[in-house]
């Protein structure tokens, strides 16, 4: 406790204009039509002078002023003898001399509060950490695959990641040659190992989790209701298939609740024996403001929808165009994408596959904006004769450049969890 000490509050003027005088976090005194804000502290011979850069002033005040005012309010506002004047050395600093109270207690850590430009810069940058989980699921072995993923992410501590992305059909495997072969693995809402695993991961880490799984079919009306009003119109070829299951993606929030579900719209040949197509692309939002509007798609959704034929110059670019039209800032693509076969001796990432992904998202890179982030979570390994490309990656559009920045890319055969900050 500090007693019998005359305190001086040094006040910094925020560019001769500041916030609403009614905001008690900011307003100390109004002098010469200036609202003054506390940013540094003096006690006897201890002078903690704080010089903030232009970018850091408002953020720094918002962090510290409420706590400072809550401690000093009895002194500053409780005594009519407090007065305010301009320091003649500079017109931009004002001093307030409150009375001293022997009964006033100061917290022991008062002078250890972080009040530096470096803290301000850190606060101005809010990280958004995405965890890519790339592994080799074993088909029809759900329990083993769930255990494998949990082992992979066991090293992650709660609060160290904001979003976990798993591949398409993450826990069941992907290659089911017939409708009958997949039926035992179709997961209903009341009995879904994939949902339960995602909820457990989300609750432990305090993050969002996105994963693919096989879901039961819907009636046409149920499919429209799930897709919502902003859903894109699926291809004519997709509309004809009824299927016995759906190739789905779920989004689980940190409380373990499913907040969004999407059904794959564009069918790959492996899907055709059993998959009911969805009703088009959809969007959703989360409290993670840096994500912006989000859309989840699945593997073949990136390709031209039948009967369209794609050319790099003319398109069509169904998924990328949808993202632009619906102001999607973050696209999450869950994949079981096949290896290109190019340079098979190269165990690093499949460059031909990554190049193709980039090419199919061309409108995003040519938009002139740097706001688009694409998260591609692919699987690796071999399943029933199909070899997968791995090479999970995160791409960011760049203003005035026609190619994205690759924030990270995993190896072709790498099984790992890669956490990347997509807010940088």
UniProtKB/TrEMBL annotation:
SUPFAM superfamilies: Carbon-nitrogen hydrolase (SSF56317). This is CN hydrolase domain-containing protein. It comes from the Eukaryota. Residues 128-424 form the CN hydrolase domain. It comes from Rhizoctonia solani. GO terms for biological process: protein catabolic process. GO terms for molecular function: protein-N-terminal asparagine amidohydrolase activity; protein-N-terminal glutamine amidohydrolase activity. InterPro entries: C-N_Hydrolase, C-N_Hydrolase_sf, Nta1. Pfam families: CN_hydrolase (PF00795). PROSITE patterns: CN_HYDROLASE. The lineage of its organism: Eukaryota, Fungi, Dikarya, Basidiomycota, Agaricomycotina. Residues 218-247 are annotated as: Disordered.
């Amino acid at each position: 406790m500090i007693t019998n000490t005359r305190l001086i509050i040094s006040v910094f003027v925020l560019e001769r204009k500041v916030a609403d005088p009614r905001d008690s976090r900011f307003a100390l005194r109004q002098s010469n039509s200036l609202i003054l804000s506390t940013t540094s502290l003096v006690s006897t011979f201890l002078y903690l002078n704080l010089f903030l850069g232009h970018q850091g002033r408002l953020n720094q005040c918002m962090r510290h002023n409420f706590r400072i005012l809550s401690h000093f309010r009895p002194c500053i506002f409780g005594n009519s003898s407090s007065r305010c004047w301009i320091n003649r050395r500079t017109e931009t600093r004002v001093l307030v001399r409150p009375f001293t109270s022997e009964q006033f207690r100061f917290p022991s850590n008062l002078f250890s509060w972080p009040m530096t430009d470096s803290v301000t810069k850190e606060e101005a940058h809010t990280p958004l950490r995405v965890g890519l989980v790339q592994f080799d699921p074993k088909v029809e072995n759900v329990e083993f695959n769930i255990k494998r993923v949990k082992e992979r992410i066991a090293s992650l501590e709660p609060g160290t990641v904001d979003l976990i992305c798993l591949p398409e059909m993450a826990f069941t495997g992907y290659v089911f040659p017939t409708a009958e072969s997949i039926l035992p693995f179709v997961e209903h809402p009341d009995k879904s190992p994939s949902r339960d695993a995602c909820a457990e991961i989300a609750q432990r880490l305090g993050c969002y989790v996105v994963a693919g799984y096989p879901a039961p079919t819907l009636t046409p009306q149920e499919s429209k209701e799930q897709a919502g009003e902003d859903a894109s119109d699926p291809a004519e070829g997709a509309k004809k298939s009824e299927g016995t299951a759906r190739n789905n993606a779920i989004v689980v929030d940190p409380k373990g609740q499913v907040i969004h579900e999407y059904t794959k719209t564009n069918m790959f040949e492996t899907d055709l024996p059993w998959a009911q197509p969805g009703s088009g692309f959809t969007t959703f939002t989360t409290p993670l403001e840096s994500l912006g509007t989000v859309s989840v798609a699945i593997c073949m959704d990136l390709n031209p929808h039948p009967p369209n034929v794609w050319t790099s110059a003319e398109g069509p670019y169904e998924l990328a165009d949808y993202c632009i039209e619906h102001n999607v800032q973050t696209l999450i693509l869950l994949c079981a994408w096949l290896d290109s076969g190019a340079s098979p001796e190269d165990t690093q990432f499949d460059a031909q596959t990554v190049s193709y992904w980039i090419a199919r998202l061309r409108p995003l890179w040519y938009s002139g904006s740097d706001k688009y982030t694409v998260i591609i979570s692919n699987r690796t390994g071999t399943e029933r004769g199909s070899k997968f490309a791995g090479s999970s990656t995160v791409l960011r559009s760049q203003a005035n450049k026609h190619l994205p920045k690759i924030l990270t890319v995993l190896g072709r055969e790498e099984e790992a969890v890669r956490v990347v900050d997509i807010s940088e």
